Recover the amino acids of this structure.
């Protein structure tokens, strides 16, 4: 349904996210091509985009890269260019050095730099302008995640005719933490430009509504927030009492827990080659009694250090031998130019080296550590090989790895140990829930998982699988878009 207005391509449905759903792969001869990145979000939105005529606006992941829009699986890919300095200030700086640690319970100290903020505003404006010029009259724009929190308000100012949704993939912090942000009011106002603001957990939506009440004094009647129209036209203002008879529009702020393409993960797990590979992995590890698995981006929010500490102590206090258990840790490289991530890598690799140095033998390693990503097939083989999956995040918006593990276990076996600080814990209550800060508790839970009778493992896994197979990513996006369509805000009289 592509139209040409003012020689610009316009679409009925536009998705905006920091990263595009395609990766640029450079061949050995220096030539490059684009490869769809197999994320859950793109899988969920592909059918909607194909039927509605959709465009996806985002950054290529590389500085100073210019290219023309192109089609990928029926989606129009529209680039937003970032200079090297913008990548440093907007992406590495404000997004991942300020917002990311602040929104994850200040596990690492957030850094507040005015230059970073200024670039964040400038880059958000660029994304908003790209969305404004790509969307048909009366169309829908769905903005994603913490890198683009100002886009809803900026876009509404440019195109009041649009329906605007926003989904926050990471936690939204309690007000006591959020209020540290020098630009806390501007961010809340930016988000309130949307018609629907989606969060992972009920607690995130409640934290946001509280921030709105504290900073703006608006009336919130869960899940509705009343935004006075006068406030929007006057722009940024200090807290002002809401007057009776004021015109307002309504914004919905509620939780929509994201999920995965569960059936596709299960299908892959059922493939004979993946099952053969799972067996091979167990053999290659020296047939330990139990395989423990951790799969994470190398990020300080994931609690990898806590997990290693618990496992190392189980070996050193001789609760376990390396014939009993091997820990496989996949730590995919992430945000490698941000200092906290560099320091984390050093710390984790030092710990892995020490534990292996102390306990590994020629035939058995203690921790099989991998600092790279793997294709989906290999991940599924690892999930099938793993008797125990360790998700020990200190704070996580959702944690899709927990859901992937469950989706692949069509044999109803395997034990999921899951941090209560991951959004997934709200739904996956039959996992073994842990507090990752409690190292003794974590150690006991690992031993309990290893000793759990098959009947109990199966009962738990069946319950978990029911949740994950019923609530897949398609249901998530359908529900968000349904609420977005029905809640298009209208000004109404108090
Ligand atoms: C999290 C965020 C995403 C982000 C991803 C990878 O899941 O919610 O917005 O894309 O991490 O991080 P990166 O910085 O590499 O995009």
């Amino acid at each position: 349904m592509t139209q040409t207005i003012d020689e610009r391509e316009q679409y009925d449905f536009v998705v905006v996210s920091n990263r595009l759903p395609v990766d640029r792969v450079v061949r050995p001869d220096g030539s490059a091509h684009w490869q769809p990145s197999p994320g859950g979000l793109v899988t969920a939105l592909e059918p909607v985009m194909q039927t509605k005529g959709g465009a996806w606006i985002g950054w290529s992941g590389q500085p100073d890269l210019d290219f023309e829009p192109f089609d990928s699986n029926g989606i129009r890919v529209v680039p937003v260019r970032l200079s090297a300095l913008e990548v440093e200030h907007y992406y590495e700086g404000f997004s991942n050095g300020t917002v990311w640690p602040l929104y994850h319970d200040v596990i690492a100290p957030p850094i507040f730099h005015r230059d970073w903020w200024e670039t964040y505003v400038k880059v958000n404006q660029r994304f908003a302008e790209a969305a404004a010029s790509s969307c048909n009259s009366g169309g829908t724009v769905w903005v994603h995640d913490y890198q683009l929190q100002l886009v809803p308000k900026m876009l509404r100012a440019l195109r009041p005719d649009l329906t605007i949704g926003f989904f926050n993939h990471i936690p939204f912090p309690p007000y006591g933490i959020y209020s540290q942000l020098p630009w806390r009011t501007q961010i809340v106002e930016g988000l309130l430009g949307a018609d629907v603001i989606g969060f992972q957990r009920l607690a995130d939506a409640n934290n946001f509504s509280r921030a709105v009440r504290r900073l703006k004094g608006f009336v919130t009647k869960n899940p509705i927030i009343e935004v006075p129209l006068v406030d929007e036209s006057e722009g940024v203002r200090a807290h002002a009492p809401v007057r009776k008879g004021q015109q307002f529009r309504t914004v919905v702020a509620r939780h929509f827990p994201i999920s995965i393409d569960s059936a596709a993960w299960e299908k892959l797990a059922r493939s004979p080659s993946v099952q053969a590979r799972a067996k091979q992995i167990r053999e290659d590890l020296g047939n330990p009694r139990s395989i423990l698995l951790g799969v994470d981006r190398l990020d300080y929010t994931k609690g990898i250090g806590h997990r290693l500490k618990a496992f190392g102590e189980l070996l050193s206090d001789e609760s376990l031998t390396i014939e009993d258990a091997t820990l496989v840790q996949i730590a995919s490289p992430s945000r490698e130019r941000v200092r906290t991530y560099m320091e984390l890598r050093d710390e984790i690799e030092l710990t892995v080296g020490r534990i292996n140095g102390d306990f590994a033998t020629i035939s058995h390693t203690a921790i099989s550590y991998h600092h790279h990503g793997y294709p989906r097939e290999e991940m599924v083989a690892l999930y099938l090989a793993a008797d125990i999956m360790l998700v020990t995040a200190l704070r996580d918006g959702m944690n899709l790895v927990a859901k992937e593990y469950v989706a692949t276990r069509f044999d109803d076996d395997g034990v999921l140990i899951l941090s209560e600080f991951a959004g997934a814990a709200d739904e996956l209550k039959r996992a073994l829930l842990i507090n990752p800060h409690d190292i003794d508790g974590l150690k006991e839970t690992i031993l309990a998982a290893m000793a759990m009778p098959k009947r109990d493992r199966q009962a738990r896994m069946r319950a978990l699988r029911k949740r994950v197979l019923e609530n897949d990513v398609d249901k998530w996006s359908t529900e968000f878009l349904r609420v977005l369509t029905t809640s298009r805000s209208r000004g109404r009289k108090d």
